Structure formats: C-alpha cells, structure tokens
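Researcher: Re-running this chain for the archive, since the previous output was lost when a drive failed. Same request as before.
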Amino acid sequence: MRIRSKQDFWSGLMFVGIGLFFALQATKYQMGTAARMGPGYFPFWLGVILAVMGAGVALGALSIKAQETEVEKFDWRVTALIIGSVMLFGALLNLLGVYLATFILVVVSSVAGHDFNWKVAVANAAFLVFFSYLAFIRGLGLIFPLWPSFS
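Model: Regenerated structure tokens:
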C-alpha cells in the first residue's frame, strides 16, 4: 500500500481528526432525537460526516488512479491571514455591524490567495454581504447589529 497523493492523504487525516474531535466534544451535550434535537445532535453528526468524508479522501489517496502529489511547505502567512480575518470579524461585529464586518472579513481573507485581485475581492465581499443579509437577516430572522453603533 503506497500513498500516491500525499496532499490528499494528510488533508483527509486532518478532516478525520477534526471531525472526531467535534463529534466527541458534542457528546458532552444532550443529544435528543432527530425530531427533537438537543444542542449536541447537529455538531455530533456534522463531525461524524466530516470524519467519514475525510476517511474517504485519505483512502482515495491510496488508489492507483490517484494523481501523485507531494506536500509543499506549510504557508503560515496564509494561515495567519485566514484565522486573523475570522478573529477580526468577531471583534468588529458588534462595533461595525454585519455588513461592514463581513465586507472586511472577505477582503482580508482574500489577501491570503496567491492570485489576489482587489476588484474580485470587493465584488465577492459585496455579494457575500448581500447573501448574508438574505440568508441570516431575512431568511432566518437573526438579530445582529447591521450598521455601526458608536453609542
């Protein structure tokens, strides 16, 4: 048994690990049933599905048909930009509101891409702000501050 696609193999194992971690953490909460879900039900099954999909990716890396790839050097700059943009979003959400915080999140995380383009990042951010409004505010009726409140 030979690992042909090292990139797929290691990313599959990462998904298995993350999925199992969240599934195990979810067991600390009440599960409930499919008809009456408890707070642990959704994260448990989401973790299980992630672990199964990760196992599929890792096993696919062992296939003869898998394209041979190597694992490149880990890019800490990209990781810091992505995680930092999510943390920045959390810090700015109450201060700037959903619209501006989402816009900043998308633009800052877009900088992590190797083929970054300002016009594409701004267009993508505008679309995701509009989609967030439709999905979370109109669709789900969630209550978030929409615009900055400096009071």
